[in-house]
Amino acid sequence: MATSGTWPAAPRQRIRWLRRLAVAAAVGTVTLLLALIWELLPARLDPNRAAQAVAVPTAADRPRDTVAGDACARQLIGAWVQLSPTQRRSDLDLLPLSATALRCSADQPGLVEAHLLRLDDGQPERYLHGETEDFATPDYLARARTALARGGPVELEAPTGRFSDRLHAVPGSQPPLVLVQRYQSMAPPLAVVLGPSDGVPVAVRQVQVLLSVLAVGLVGLVGGSLRWLSRSQRDYRRELESLNEQLRQDALKLRQDSLIQLMGHRSGELLHKLSNHSGACLVALDGVAKHLKAGRHDLLDEGVRIAGRAAQHLHDIVERYRPVLRDEAAKEPSLLRDTVTDAMAQVSGYAATHRVVMHNAVSAELPAITMDRLILCEVLSNLLHNAISVMETTPLTNRLISVENYLDEDAGQVQIHVRDRGPGVPAALCEKVFEHGYSTRRGGSGWGLYICRHWVEKLGGRLIVTDNLPRGADFIITLPLTPPAVPEESTHAPVQPVA
Q1: By the 8 A CB rule, do 390 and 423 touch?
Q2: CATH assignment of the domain containing 446
Q3: Domain span including residue 406
Q4: pLDDT digits (tens, 9 = 90+) for 50-87
């Protein structure tokens, strides 16, 4: 397992390969860029290649078929006239018109654009094919209106002079529209085509081949690195899963060791109390025996009473610690006020030592609740003991603990509030205080509140802590009025039997 501050071997090795991959990618990018420049600008590297240019005729050099162009224009105008105003604004409805214009352009040499032009302001109404951005000028519009007034299609030079326009009037259009077919007016410069024998020097061709091989090698290196990284990532994931499993096993072992330590502490406390009460019982019985021998029958009742109380205390202690040794709840109808009274009686001596007053404000009219009385009594006594401990710095006149209840019959539950006037619990620690092993008191085991929450959950309830304004903490136990279904197995058992 890696120690703190040291990365596992797999991540360190992967980072080294990522750095190498980044360098290889940078070199490959520069090499490919140089190869691209070398291939696209051969004339600059070898001026003799420009002399071997071959002229290739373009579409503008072929003769224009005016009859076919006019027929295509009439077809476009007829389709436009049949469209409604709404359809003329819909790109979907104009798709057939654009397809027709594109087909006409393919059949007509040099036809680069077809669009509908408004004669009133010179704005294009709709581009059917192409867009040369050679827009109409006022002079162009004036010449177009004059020529169209004489009737028939007319030809005009485009505003920039680079194209030749053939205009066809659209009948009945408002504002007046014309269909403009724009042709190339002059042939573009000769296209340069390099033949296979382009006269590249042998040294230049060798450099190009070398750069191509280097580029292919770099691409292979990058691909291999990516495959290795993918395989390394799978190995690293398996290693992390193994480490996580080991951590879970270590945490489980630590938890079991802590539970055993807690059991030892509780067992010592149990033995101490059993020893005290059993000793009291033996002393009382010894006194009874002496009185019998002396014939003092009038003193037997007191000895028997003391022995009986000691025996009852022994029984109560065993029953009190039984929830610690088992993980199931023995539920029975019990009065909440009586359970709170028992819990306060268990810590009354500790409260008197610290001069803390406890007040049982649980309603005597509260109906019996189906619960495990001994478990709830242990939880309450633990909370009361903690509340007494945290009020060491509280003024004597303010050392008060109150236990109250709130019944919610609609929700079918009852809340038990244990309120103290100590320093309280910070908001950031309201959940952390219930974690096993965490304690805010010096010398605390950190298991009391964890076990309390576990027992409350066994009863089907929940345990939280909030502020007791203006000072102190308020531990709230929420229990159902009717017992919940018993779970099949526990996931938070505080103590497991050791075989």
Answers
A1: yes
A2: 3.30.565.10
A3: 329-480
A4: 444 444 444 444 566 778 888 888 888 888 888 888 88
